[in-house]
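Summary for the lay section of the report: proteins are chains of building blocks that fold into shapes. Here we show the chain for ABC transporter substrate-binding protein and then a coded description of the shape we predicted for it.
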Amino acid sequence: MRFHFKAMLGAMAALALAVPAQAADLKLALSSSPSAMDPQFHNLGANLNVAQNMFDTLVRMDADSRLMPWLAESWRVIDDRTWEFRLRKDVRFHDGTKLTADDVIWSLDRPATLVNSPAGFGIYTRSIATKTAVDATTLRITTNGPYPLLLSDLSVIYILNRKATEGLAAEDFARGKGMVGTGPYRFVSFQRDDRVELARNDTAWGTGPAWDHVSVRFIPNNASRLAALLSGDVDAIEGVPTADLAQVKANPKLVYAQKVSGRLVYFYVDSGRADTPQVTARDGGKLAKNPLADERVRRAMSMAINREAIADRVMAGLGYPTNNLVPETLFGYDPTLTVVKFDPEGAKRLLAEAGYPDGFALTIHGPNDRLVNDAQIVQAVAQMLTRIGIAAKVETIPMASYASRGAKGEFSFGLIGFGSQTGESSSILRAIIACQNPKSGGGLYNWSHYCNPQVDDYLTRALATVDDQARLDLLRKAAHLAVTTEAIIPLHFQATTWAARKGIAIEPRTDERTFAASFRPVP
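The coded shape description reads as follows.
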């Protein structure tokens, strides 16, 4: 998607939702369990996959990451700092109360008040200066300055029922309190690391949900998840294992869908701390300084990775090597950032030049249930680094634990993925590249602890620029400087595959989200 600010001014669109021929039940298997049920507590893909079934946002990204009206049926720009939103008048919460502008204001205020969030949603509300209810279904928002990404930011914030959630802590939601949304399905029950049970919302706005009941199961093991589909234990799954794609495609009882995502799969490299926890000398002794703080070391590590081999052998053709932050279909892509050439001999020379002719030792961390073949990627890169003198050990763990520990700074070098939530590169720049700043919300996922004031300057200016070309130039400058100074080590964009039993249609998404509305029964 190419996001153009001017094209979105006063945007309105007719909303067309699929109408099922008849209702049925859906048993859906996901790869990761949520770390929290509070839809505003932890900005994590596994959490969003669950929340999207029960909660709505003012604006939504469609399957191709294009903005569309949702709870807000229309909006207009009054001046360069003031926006007015009109809410749909036919929307009710699951408890029967009507959605009002006061609920929206509460929902936009709340993220900044949540404590102990490992990565919250406050970054998406910090641009807002004031919020005013003009009437029950009209909301006026002013921003701190010209801000072209307000609509995109609002597509990330779930709207809650103020009466049902005021005074609740994040952990209360896991017990069913506050689970009162406007989405197509109502909360029934939650068993941590096992499943979420949902029921059809009979008062849902629009044309209503496709399913009577939805059971969302969490099955981290790829083989077990596919086996559940093949046995009929579940009706649909995400993350079809690459090794089993041919089997799925050839099975007449199954259907599948595939899409290249906007999720960047990359390695964070702890360059910002003088002492990093998972790096030692080869004999296990303490090093005088953090070698990852040296740009030459980070570049050597990048040059040691054979991205083409990973794409072909580990990803079975479902990885698309890159040195960019976003794919070429998204605003902010920089065509001058070409894929880093595999050069192990050059990498060895850089290590020696940096003062590490004999290398050092480190532990590579990564999830084992979130990205396509994530554990295998980590193993492959460990072998590649070993060949240039870096003795690499591997530790992969479930994503929920990985996200929590990573946010606490427990790791030095590891695999992770991040997709643009705004449809352009500013989202990923703010989250994983910008200097860590609790006040501004920058660097929430900056596990590299990288900080370059010039990159932040380019980004800050881009976020306040409404001219498309000027903003594009600034975003490209920020990305180019960050990537060429090895803020992170980009690897590839992944293609994601979903599968279901015959009789179910699948809508694949570039953001890789998987929820009940992604599936509908067909004759």
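Put simply, here is one thing we learned. The chain is about 25% helix and 25% strand.
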